[in-house]
Specification:
Length: about 475
């Protein structure tokens, strides 16, 4: 693979210089990084990831849990059934899991970037202290966000992963990092999907239920054990049935006062996080972070490799992930979105499709970045990436205001495809505010607060005249 890092004509303003600004690295003692230098492939990828994550999270913000991931039949039986199905296919083929995978990879890359640059500046004796304080504050931000704003927070998970796992891995070779990350995703996270989501339990019970049904069809009397299996299976099927009553009840439960929300969910956020993290969320995040650390070291995330490398990565990744998604979603659709079919054809291969599809989407985005065909259009996206933490929190506040806190209270009132109108509106705000903010300031407001807390000293905020 041929490196093109030294080719100014190829990288232009998408140089990796300055990408530590969002990552709370120590500020330079010399002149500030110029605006053109701060636009990088990492910033742009982070911007794409942050905007793309909302494509999936918007379902969580906007409606009952029945409509997350794959919504039930009500979304595909009304006048907009085909439109909803198209939206579903697009989400799963290009965004589901992939944006989260990309965001996690970039967080892992930031660990290498932060520590390597600090050590090269002669601050090796202080880098561990800075790293620990930085991620401890991230944990605090995550607890605040998850408790008081939205319980779908990811900051606590990232901060915990950084504190527990990532620092000792920063010196490993790229191949070792990629292998370890892939194993975490494909083995440990697959185990987490099977156990935490109830997939394994459902498969075991369905196998027993099939034996009971066969006995009934043959006219054999059921044993007490078989009757118990029959009852358990019927209860599981009923639990997964989506009725209008269940949907209405969850919508009513969501439209409670903010104080009731805190009492019911917010103050239990850390318990919920602790219960699902060890085998479900952390293997996914840490796996992607390790892969990101390895890909950063190879120059992959810095757009330094050849076009052929990215083209083949995208092609092979999509060849693995897209057919699985098409078959899986179609099988689910044909079954009337029966929960066991979704488990078998969509959730079970999820870790593989996230890894393959996530790498494919990342490679495709880097091809766009390297081509410079959309240079001006990518600048606002890079600005979102440079202010990713601020935009992440702002997005949560905006969505909660639109769907629950504000006067409209749209939670559960929009069709599956209609929530994307809110999505586009939030994107416009993210892109506009980020671009305008960085004209005057060096960092996003929360990034500045994070830096200042990390070094326990107020950091320069206004952009200096060059």
């Amino acid at each position: 693979m041929t490196s093109i890092a030294t080719s100014a004509s190829t990288l232009d303003s998408y140089s990796p210089v300055g990408t530590e600004e969002e990552l709370a690295g120590p500020p330079h003692a010399v002149a500030p990084v110029q605006r053109a230098e701060r636009i990088s492939s990492v910033d742009t990828l982070r911007g794409f990831a942050l905007l793309g994550i909302l494509i999936l999270n918007i379902d969580d913000f906007g409606g009952p849990m029945f409509f997350h991931d794959i919504p039930p039949n009500p979304a595909f039986t009304g006048p907009h059934a085909h439109l909803n199905l198209i939206v579903l296919f697009i989400k799963w083929m290009f965004f589901e899991g992939k944006m989260r995978f990309l965001f996690s990879m970039l967080f892992g890359a930031g660990v290498v970037l932060l520590t390597d640059r600090a050590e090269r500046r002669g601050a090796a004796d202080k880098v561990a202290d800075v790293y620990l304080r930085r991620n401890m504050w991230l944990v605090v931000l995550g607890l605040i966000h998850g408790t008081f704003i939205w319980n779908g927070d990811i900051l606590l998970q990232y901060g915990s992963a950084a504190l527990l796992f990532l620092y000792p891995c920063r010196k490993l070779k790229p191949k070792t990092l990629f292998t370890a990350g892939s194993l975490l995703l494909l083995v440990f996270w697959t185990y987490g999907v099977l156990q935490f989501t109830g997939v394994a339990q459902a498969f075991r019970l369905s196998s027993k239920a099939a034996t009971v049904i066969a006995a009934q069809n043959a006219g054999h009397p059921l044993t007490p054990e078989q009757k118990k299996v029959e009852q358990q299976w019927n209860e599981m099927v009923k639990k997964h049935e989506v009725t209008k009553q269940k949907i209405d009840e969850e919508i009513a439960d969501a439209h409670v006062s903010y104080l009731n929300h805190l009492l019911d969910e917010g103050f239990n956020y850390e318990k919920s996080f602790a219960s699902r993290s060890p085998f479900f969320t952390l293997p996914e995040s840490v796996g992607a972070m390790l892969i990101g650390m390895g890909l950063y070291k190879t120059g992959f995330l810095l757009a330094e490799l050849s076009y052929g490398t990215y083209l083949w990565t995208a092609l092979l990744g999509f060849l693995v992930s897209i057919p699985i998604y098409i078959i899986g979603i179609w099988k689910a659709y044909e079954s009337g979105f029966f929960f066991l079919t979704i488990y078998k054809w969509v959730y079970l291969p999820y870790p593989l499709t996230e890894l393959a599809g996530g790498l494919a989407v990342t490679a495709a985005l880097i091809i766009i970045i390297k081509s410079h065909a959309f240079h001006r259009l990518l600048r606002p996206i890079a600005a979102v990436g440079q202010t990713a933490l601020s935009n992440y929190l702002l997005t949560s506040v905006l969505c909660q205001f639109v769907f629950l806190w504000g006067p409209w209270k749209l939670f559960g009132k929009l069709d599956y495809y209609q929530v994307n109108y809110v999505l586009l509106s939030v994107w416009v705000i993210n892109l506009t505010l980020s671009t305008l903010w960085l004209r005057a300031f060096e960092f996003g407001p929360v990034e500045w607060l994070w830096r200042s807390a990390t070094y326990w000293k107020l950091q320069p905020m206004l952009k200096k005249a060059i």
